[in-house]
Amino acid sequence: MSIGELNAFLEREFPEIGWMGIEIRRVDRRSITLGMPAQPRNLRPGGTISGPAMMSLVDLGMYLLVLAQIGPVPLAVTTNLNIDFLRKPPPGDLRAEGELLKLGRRIAVGDFRIYGAEGDEPVARASLTYSIPPDRA
Fold first, then answer.
1. In this structure, what DSSP letter does residue 17 have?
2. Model confidence over 91-123: pLDDT tens digits?
3. Coil, helix or strand for 36?
4. 3-class DSSP assignment, residue 92
5. Beta-carbon neighbour count of residue 94 at 10 Å?
6. With the C-alpha atoms ordered 65, 70, 75, 81, is the resulting torsion angle positive or negative?
7. CB atoms < 10 A from the CB of 136, how many?
8. Quick one: which H or E segment has residue 27?
9. How many C-beta atoms lie closer than 10 Å to residue 96's C-beta?
10. What is 109-127 written as a DSSP string?
11. What per-residue confidence (pLDDT) applies to 44?
12. How far apart are CA 33 and CA 79, in angstroms?
């Protein structure tokens, strides 16, 4: 699926996530880059971006990366998400870069790195596994 097809799918199947403002910047056979704009609702006390906001970014990123390969399969679901918070990201936009490590008939595995406003070093890294339904419908 292309960026346009992925955006249309999300608008149709998951309009409730539009508030996140996540932008698909690039997608290909093995990788994806997403951006998430800074929003006050994503901040936690202490002026840093919340863990749930970062987890949402990588979870959606993996979902989109898998769909870009297999087509519009709404019932592909997260079976595992491990995240390491490496450093405190300052308030600001986030960039997530993901790579598909394995795409099988029933399972997909990927790795993501999240970069903060400075963008030089990752602020978090995540490993995700997705289950793909056998009928892909």
1. G
2. 788 999 999 999 998 999 999 999 987 778 899
3. strand
4. coil
5. 24
6. negative
7. 13
8. strand 23-27
9. 24
10. EEEEEEE-SS-SSEEEEEE
11. 66
12. 22
Compute, in degrees rounded to 10, the torsion defined by CA atoms 38, 43, 8, 127. 110
3-state secondary structure of 56: helix
| Look-up of token digits 């769909």 | 67
pLDDT at 51: 82
Q: Angle at CA 127, nearest 5°, toward 49 and 54?
A: 15
137 by Cβ neighbours in 10 Å (0-12 / 13-18 / 19+) ranks as exposed
Nearest to 70 by CA among 23, 103, 25: 103
Q: What is the largest CA-CA distance in the chain?
A: 46
Cβ contact 95:113 at 8 Å: no
CB distance 122 to 113 below 8 Å: yes
pLDDT tens digits, one per residue of 30-76: 999 999 887 767 666 777 787 888 899 999 999 999 999 998 877 88
